[in-house]
Amino acid sequence: MTNAADPYTLHRLANGLQIVIEKMPDVRSAAAGFLVRTGARDETPEVAGVSHFLEHMMFKGTSQRTWREITIDFDRMGSSYNAFTSEDRTIYYGWVRKADLARQIELLADMVRATLPEEEFKTEKNVILEEIAMAKDNIEHVAFDFLQEKVFAGHPLAWPILGYENTVGPLTRDQMWAYFQRRYAPDNMLLVVAGNVDPAEVIGVAQELCGSWKPAGPQPKRTTPRIHRGVDVMSVDRFKQQVVAMTFPSVGGSDPRAETAAAAATILGGENSRFFWEIVQKGLAPRAGAHHLEYTDCGLMLLFGACEPERIEQLADAIRTQAKRICRGPVAAHEVDRVKNKRRTSLAIEGEAPYYRLTQLMDDMEYYGEPRTVEQMLAEVDAVSSETIAGYFAAFPIDDEGHLTSVGPRDWPAAP
Amino acid sequence: MSEISHGYLPCGIEYGVVTLPRRHVVSFQIRVLAGASSEPAERLGLARLVEETLDKGTQQRSGQQLSDAFDAIGASRNSGTGRETMTFTSTVLAEHFERAVELHAEMLRTPTFPEDAVRVNVDLARQELSALEDDPQALCDKLVGPLAYGPVLGRHPLGERETLERIARADLDAFWRTHFHCGRMVVSVAGPVEEKRAVDVLARHFQGFGGAAGNGRETHSVRFSPSRTHHHKDLEQEQISICWPGVDATHKDFPVQQATLGILSGGMSGRLFTEVREKRGLVYWVSAWQETPRGAGMMFLGASTTPERCDQTYTALLREMDRLSQDLIQDELDRAVTGIVASHETRGDATRSRCAELAADLFFFGRPVPPEEKIAKLQAVTIDDIRRYLAEHRRDRLCVLTLGPRALADPGMKAGVQEGGR
């Protein structure tokens, strides 16, 4: 439970709902959110997109409120609220003035017991199909979905979060209801609250609102994907740029090496990085970067760039050159220090506002099973060194071919 | 609790400080009162190139050394070029505040604009312009700018392909010499910093930087072009952008305009989201927003939809504007106002937000505006105010721009019609 040095309160209701609370006495606001452990990777191929569509349907009516009343109640509090779906989780949140916290939790708790009205289901399907169409006009969205489809081929992580027209189009309310009943059970959910709050009061509110929810028992075990290598090309004439993305297997978010992997990605392709000075500031491409993509049980090191199509060979060569250089080392101590200094600032910024803390707590619970204190996070940042980066690249090299995807007007690279 | 102070340094810098004693970070923004509208007509894109090249070398350090120096204190930095100003923003742990200001002073006072960096940044800007073609919403914003604001204020910071080709190092240097001096600088600071410390630090590092005369505070005239323009492009969706003049940020009706926008698009219970998306399922993205250059205001409606539904979407957008004055109820107005008031408190927990708010106050009002003053004005808005505002700012002079595979079928316009094309 809580003490002065540890601002966290953890509690679990009898039905399995986990509750995590962070007390932030210096702020005027509070954020609350439900995390449901479900996402695109928990879908079967014929219902690809159901998790995201379901997230929209949570705003469309409950036994106590119509869809109109749900949005009006959020706005009456002046809440900053939304929801989002990823490969492995779905999150609903609201950020309010501290006096409105109990009302905010009540509204969120009501929402996630949705009734999925048939008429609303039909109308909202059109909204989802528009969202899919919008994503197709954005080259980076197209390139990222294509990358996941190919690098995770044969595994549910390959489905796009939005689904496809030919899976969302024929999806029925009954299919969605079955998925909803299975996945939105209290023993597969987490309530997170951060801000100027009284933990005992939050637990009392949660018990009253969520205590009667029926648990579903163990969920089907997620399988870890095989990460493919190779080359895949999507030729799209109407785009003006060519995007290249290279991916390599890496650690998941819960691996102790995740902080090192993220630091390595920043040294390679963040601000003031090797990519910035050796690729962007050489005029090869306006965008080139590296990200460490973390899922609960696996990860990818992603190197990417976007440029004029006729420069794509040069850009790809430059990315590979830098990948080999960092992989074969050494990384200078001053490069590591730069990244660590910036990380310290970002932790301080994240620590200020309840919504930022909410998202961090959700990550911590998913990856570590418990919240991390600022001191713990700083210790993990401090532990990153040239040596840990060298060790990471020895285990997860990026100097081989990896997997390459290319999206744009050119059919590049040509098939051998 | 916070204290807000405001004043001018002897060197000419206008400053504001929000002292937030219990915070761990300091955010500050240096605004230089020169932007795309300050560029020579034949050198469009120049201001952004200056902003992009300032940190690529100083008299003391190379670009990489300067970036390393910022990283040594973990500075979280940002910069941007707008229609009227350039901003340089930084957030650091409180103990690094002075060093961060010192490095900004070095960057702003002693840039060398290395020839290689200028050449590369010109080429990158040309590539960015071409990349806009793959970002339909951003492209729409670029296309609508000149129609909404006219040829000067409507410029896009990236410039134009043909004007970028003319830009050389000497142009950057000349722009910097003309526009970068204390009299054109406004600095906003938020965090655990008292006024005296902020003033001392700024004075120590900027004293003697150019003239103290307070230039750059004039307003630009807006040349609004009511029109209907279609740009053909092979896209999945049609982009629809509609705009018309509103009031500027200092106008007595600005809180009325804010409330009107809140009713249209403040939260998910806003009229556009409710009527166009949730009831009809016509769109995923629909929004209303405002832009307020100094001395002017522009209202925007935007949506994207598949081509076969674009006429229906367009009609639905206009219908919502039309019926607003007829059936507005108090609860809608209350929700809109509550949304704006509550976000002062929630987002105000972040130091960066407090700095951004102060910076906007100094830019528009020339003074910090206490939150309670803004809130009182918003809370005083009535339904009759909104009806009067809508009557005075009728939507019978619209600029409508579409981008996508097909033009709108029905003009629905009373003003001049112009068909563009690409």
Spans of at least 5 consecutive residues with low confidence of chain A: none
Largest binding interface between chains: A-B, 73 and 75 residues
Determine the fraction of residues in helical runs of chain A and give it as a percent range.
40-55%
Which strands sit side by side, in order, in the main sheet of chain A? Answer: 1-2-6-3-5-4
| Total of helices of chain A | 15
Describe what you observe in this structure.
The complex is a heterodimer of chains A (416) and B (422). In chain A, β1 and β2 form a beta hairpin. The model of chain A has no long low-confidence stretch (mean pLDDT 96). Chain A has two domains: 203 residues, Cytochrome Bc1 Complex, Chain A, domain 1 (2-Layer Sandwich), CATH 3.30.830.10; 179 residues, Metalloenzyme, LuxS/M16 peptidase-like (Cytochrome Bc1 Complex, Chain A, domain 1). Chain A has 15 helices and eleven strands. A six-stranded mixed beta sheet of chain A has the order 1-2-6-3-5-4. Chain A is an alpha+beta fold. Chain A is globular. By secondary structure, chain B is of the alpha+beta class. Chain B has two domains: 204 residues, 2-Layer Sandwich (Cytochrome Bc1 Complex, Chain A, domain 1); 178 residues, Metalloenzyme, LuxS/M16 peptidase-like (Cytochrome Bc1 Complex, Chain A, domain 1). Chain B contains 15 helices and eleven strands. In chain B, strands 1-2-6-3-5-4 form a six-stranded mixed beta sheet, with helices on both faces. In chain B, β4 and β5 form a beta hairpin. In chain B, α3 runs parallel beside α8. Chain B is globular and about 60 Å long. Chain B starts with a strand and ends in an 18-residue tail after the last strand. The C terminus of chain B is likely disordered. The chains are: A alpha+beta (416), B alpha+beta (422). At the A-B interface, α2, β5, α4, α12 and α13 of A face α2, β5, α4, α10 and α12 of B.
Quick synopsis:
The complex is a heterodimer of chains A (416) and B (422). By secondary structure, chain A is α+β, with helices and mostly antiparallel strands.
